[in-house]
Amino acid sequence: MDKLHRQSLVAYGEPLCETVAECPIPQGTEVLVRVRCCGVCHSDLHLQDGYFALGGDKRLDITKDRALPFTLGHEISGVVEAAGEVAEGAAIGRRVAVYPWIGCGRCAACRAGDENLCSQHRHLGIGVDGGFASHVLVPHPRYLIDYAPLSPDFAGPLMCSGLTAYSALKHLGSRAERAPVLLVGLGGVGMMGLAIARALFREPPLVADIDAQKRAAALAAGAAQAFDPADPHARKAVMAATGGVIAACDFVGSEKSLQFSTGVLGRGGKVVVTGLLGGNFSIAVAMIAIKAMTIEGTLTGTLAEARELVDIARSGKLATIPTHERPLREAQTALDDLRSGRIVGRTVLSA
Length: 351
Ligand SMILES: [Zn+2]
Ligand SMILES: [Zn+2]
Prior knowledge:
Helix content is 30%, strand content 26%. It has 351 residues and is an alpha/beta fold.
């Protein structure tokens, strides 16, 4: 059996480093997947830090949720290398994307199909070793999704940034059919959101980002109009263009982004928040009623949504987004570049 090579988190706030272990032998329903690609995600930065910033000096400590050394990485595509004796359908050599948001299977959330919301979860790369590695152990073949004819560096990121964007857009419901949606924040998730919105909705979306390069990339990818939320006239410009937005996604999740997203809503409007950048948000409570406003959070997406999204992508409806592939050993540099905000599009590590 091969050795398991990993870029491991060995201490919070410290660079990843290579660790080598024995490759696990899958038991029962388990499947061992040889990693082909694993996307790098903003949440990996929070996991490496060991906390989420909640605004002011407040932090949500997340260091208790996993044992170190730990393998990050939850946007995995690869090839089935070995399977337990009752892992049905896990044919050796099958090329698959791995749904990482795996729940306990027993709680109310899991029984409703919301494994991504399970509080006793086994999320890959979050609570259980993930894909910044040569191999990943998956508890059941039901989490494997065929992705051909897509490329592996496109299929992996569909499991987090793509799924997060897709689920957020679905949570906009029928509002998204009535007028162009507004997508705030054009990082990896936002650019996926743009591609998916182009595939799902009749009218191209409006976008907003403080980075001119990202706005230009979004316009080139088919956004109808781009706004700079840092521009003091941006709110008026959005209101003039739309008469008030009724469906928005906040892919940033900061005080400023949510102020902007809620500030441009028209009556009956809704903002779905997926971003985790941090900060505090306050609003005049009366405005919630006066504007008949909905603010809803989503966290990644369900296994069913992941399958729907891969189906949409496989049908060729989804534009690929710029993806930069680098070797697994450069995992830390990739995280550093992501943290600096220098990245346009996605980065994937190839094992
Ligand atoms: Zn992610
Ligand atoms: Zn559960």
